[in-house]
Amino acid sequence: MKDEGLKSGDFVIPGDVLGVGEVFMPGEGTYEDEGIIYSNVAGVVDLDMNKRKASVEAKSNVPPVLVEGDPVICEIVDLRSQMALVDLIAKCGHEDRSLTMSPKGRIYISQASKHYVTNLQNEFRIGDLVRARVRDGRKSPVELSTIGDDMGVILALCTKCRTSMKKKDGKVECPKCGSIESRNMSQDYGKGNL
Amino acid sequence: MKRGDGRKKDELRNVRMEVGVLKRADGSAYVEWGNNKVFASVYGPREVIPRFLARNDRAILRCKYNMTPFSVEDRKRPGPDRRSVEIGKVTAGALEPAVILETYPNSMINVNIEVMQADAGTRCAGITAATLALVDAGIPMRDLVSACAAGKANDGIILDLSKEEDNKGQADIPMAIMPRSEEVTLLQMDGILTEDELEEALKLAVGGCKSIYELQKNALMAKYGE
Fold first, then answer.
1. In terms of Cα–Cα distance, which of A54, A183, A72 is closest to A132?
2. Given a cut of 90, is residue A193 above it in pLDDT?
3. Out of B139, B141, B224, whose CB is closest to A59?
4. Closest Cβ opposite residue B143 in set A15, A29, A97
5. Is residue B2 situated within a structural domain?
6. CA-CA distance, B173 to B204, in Å (whole number)?
7. Structural domain of residue A134, as residue ranges?
8. What does the pLDDT look like over A121-179, one tens digit per residue?
9. A61: helix, strand or coil
10. DSSP character for A119?
11. What is the model's pTM?
């Protein structure tokens, strides 16, 4: 049984009845209370009769929650011998919305690169912008990894003059003072992609 | 019974609602209710500051109600006062039962209500606007919250008191409900009523809240229903 006349594609608001728990499983954008499934966001209903699942695709901008595998943009704020500490800036694809939890994260030395890393200072420096993948979003600080071609530093700052560095022969070079440093760069380093 | 502005005893003032009016807020709404003009904005869920307020099983909801200095006839001194702090607290209490706070543990949702022009019934207009702003921010909710006041003026029970009726009247009862379950989330009373009068006023207020609910639905449809 579903609500009288309600069909997939209809617009619903929080509190609208979608069906009963005996017929549907509550999916995204829904909640179940005393056997009845309600919408909890404003959006479009999807009543999947094959999977027996009622869900609502939110029309509004839903707060981003970090789950394993999500790419995030972060800034290196501290480097220790075994880990880099970061401030999470945004979840990729949700740059206009703040994260729903503590913005602290860490990249452990074994998760910094697919190669063996002896010194974390050759991978990151304080102030660098990094794209990383979430390993565990429930922990605080959030566990991150930069293993992967599209992960790593996307913008490095010169440690001497804080100028944005340019990619050159697998390293980064400061256009102002000429300093050459090494980083674990993302393949799209310096292109401005988030 | 004839009212100063010609309304019937169970008639609301003209109400206009708009969702998503502030670009920089995560969610926002604007409500014009008679001569009341109220903005509500929602930020979050985000990191809790100060951290000791964080709850590891749910988010916390913090409401701030503010009247602009030019919102009333005599200039209001800017900043929080006893009345603003109280209304912020009761607004948070009115909204909390409807928001599924358990979805976002260790985080904070900020609701800001700015009264640009006040003309009696600003807390009801604020709660109504805040509800729309929460939906606009994508915060999961059990139901909308609709608010409306009833009261007594010129020895008659009336719905949605105007400023004159509020100032010269005998009682004022702001009320907020979750319309689907008719669960009351806010009920305050200023003045003295008999038991029968109170019952009549509550009936009127519930009816008013349901009319507001329909207007809220229309405002959300206008924004997202296309």
1. A72
2. no
3. B224
4. A15
5. no
6. 10
7. 71-152
8. 999 999 999 999 999 988 888 999 999 999 999 999 999 999 999 999 889 999 999 99
9. coil
10. -
11. 0.90
Q: Is residue B66 part of a domain?
A: yes
Test mutation, B142, B209, B213, B214, chain A, max A CBs within 10 A: B142
Give residue B49's Cα distance to chain centre. 25
Q: Predicted ipTM?
A: 0.91
Question: Which chain B residue's Cα is nearest to A61?
Answer: B138
∠ Cα B179 B209 B153 (to 5°): 150
CB B4 within 8 A of CB B205: no
Quickly list DSSP for B43-65.
Answer: EEEEE-SSGGG-BTTB-EEEEEE
List, for residues B161-194, the tens digit of each pLDDT value.
Answer: 999 999 999 999 999 999 999 999 999 999 999 9
CATH code for the domain of A118: 2.40.50.140
Determine contact, residues B63/B85, Cβ cutoff 8 Å: no
A116's CB contacts (< 8 A; 6+ apart) are none
Full residue range of the structural domain in which residue B28 is found: 15-224
Per-position DSSP letters for B65-100, written without gaps between them: EEE-TTSSSSPPPSS--HHHHHHHHHHHHHHGGGB-
Say which CATH number the domain at A32 has.
2.40.50.100
Tokens 């105007």, residue?
Answer: B162
Judge whether B87 lies within some domain.
Answer: yes
CB B108 within 8 A of CB B45: yes
Is residue B70 over pLDDT 80? yes
The answer to whether residues A103 and A49 belong to one domain is no
Inter-chain contact B144–A14, Cβ cutoff 8 Å? yes
> How do residues B41-62 score in pLDDT, each as one tens digit?
999 899 899 999 999 999 999 9
User: How many contacts does A have with B, using Cβ atoms within 8 A?
Assistant: 82
Residue A168, number of CB atoms within 10 A of its CB: 10
Residue A4 is predicted with a pLDDT of 62
Chain A positions contacting chain B at CB under 8 Å are 11, 13-15, 29, 31, 33, 38, 40-43, 58-63, 65, 97-103, 140
Instruction: Give the pLDDT of residue A6.
Output: 86
Any residues with CB less than 8 A from the CB of A94 and at least 6 apart, and which?
A64
- Is B213 exposed, middle or buried, given 0-12, 13-18 or 19+ CB atoms closer than 10 A? buried
In a domain, B7, yes or no: no
Residue A144 DSSP SS3: strand
Domain boundary among the residues A152, A170, A187 is at A152
